[in-house]
Amino acid sequence: MNARDWDRLAAAYAAEVCDIFSRDRRNVVERWLRSRGLLRGRRTVLDVGCGIGSFFRKYGRHFGPKTGTDHSRRMLHLAALRGRGLKHVRWQQADAGHLPPALRNCADLVVCANVITFVSVAACRRAMGETVRGAKPGAWLLFILPALESHDAVVALETGRPAPRRRGATAVVRRDDRMQRFYTRAGAQALAAGAGLRSIAVRKVWYPWSDEGITRPPRGGEPPWDWLLTARRR
Length: 234
Ligand SMILES: C[S@@+](CC[C@H](N)C(=O)[O-])C[C@H]1O[C@@H](n2cnc3c(N)ncnc32)[C@H](O)[C@@H]1O
Prior knowledge:
There is one protein chain. This protein has helices at 3-16, 20-23, 28-35, 54-59, 73-82, 121-133, 148-159, 185-194, and strands spanning 45-48, 66-70, 89-93, 107-113, 135-146, 170-175, 178-183, 198-206, 225-232. The longest helix is centred in the first third of the chain and has 14 residues, at 3-16. The chain is α/β, with parallel strands linked by helices. 33% of the residues lie in helices and 26% in strands. Helix 1 (3-16) packs parallel to helix 5 (73-82). The strands form two sheets. A seven-stranded mixed β-sheet has the order 3-2-1-4-5-9-8, with helices on both faces. Bound molecules: S-adenosylmethionine (SAM). The site of S-adenosylmethionine (SAM) has 18 residues, from loops.
């Protein structure tokens, strides 16, 4: 999907797409941010592919200077509207594969949520490399990636067929009428390792069954999840 496609989706986005930061009912993301001391000291934060600004809406007040980038003008417009009350925030149109040099080495925390899902592996690597460069040396990065194991479990539940045996660490699947790359746990780990990051950890961020359109979930079944991938720049 290009910037125009995202522009077209922008108005419906808030209603239609699962916003993982507000849907994270077990507060996995917040607990991680707190445990790393990132919600103290007015840190500098860069959100690459910020969409309608969901990360800043939930956590922005804890940070100092905040930059949200996205290639979609409409998304940025909505982010600015939703983030009206926030201080020290700027919204900048930029392609994740070619971030402006001024955004290099700038942030104590870089966030990149559900963006590195491109069909092209080369595009994923390029966006990953650019995102990593946004962090100061030694700074933290937080990625949200769609989980392939979760997707397969939901499809198995819906169809009554067993989940497929996957060979690769990632796979491109159709979701919400668009093709997206999903990651296994190993695939998420490999993405960070391939970008030269250290202190890599992969955790589950569960969201409600209803976000997958499942109204009668199996009793005791594990809810669907995204991966929270965290790591540090060298
Ligand atoms: C699924 S949304 C996630 C938005 C936000 N990060 C969140 O978690 O709520 C993906 C966002 O990435 C943006 N995006 C996709 N490809 C991009 C690219 N090449 N450069 C910049 N932004 C991109 C889209 O415009 C969209 O706002």
